[in-house]
Amino acid sequence: MKEVPLSEIKDDLSRYLREAETQEIIITRHGRPAGVLIGFESEEDWFDYRLEHDPRFLRRIEQARGSLRAGQGVRLEDVDTE
What we know:
2 domains; 3 strands; YefM-like fold; single chain; alpha+beta; 3-stranded mixed β-sheet
């Protein structure tokens, strides 16, 4: 993780977006954290990020796990593929 003042980000956003593909960049304002710049190497990375932070998707995952704990549903390992 790298910290960069907002004034530097504004001056060279393209450069910091490229850097953010490999590490999160903490944007500071007056020396204090103000935000995070996260870059994506591909559209797939963007899609994964959106799923990981989508409350509806996370809720459905938790419901599915709850069903499995309650003995309902079928585990992926138990699905017979032909």
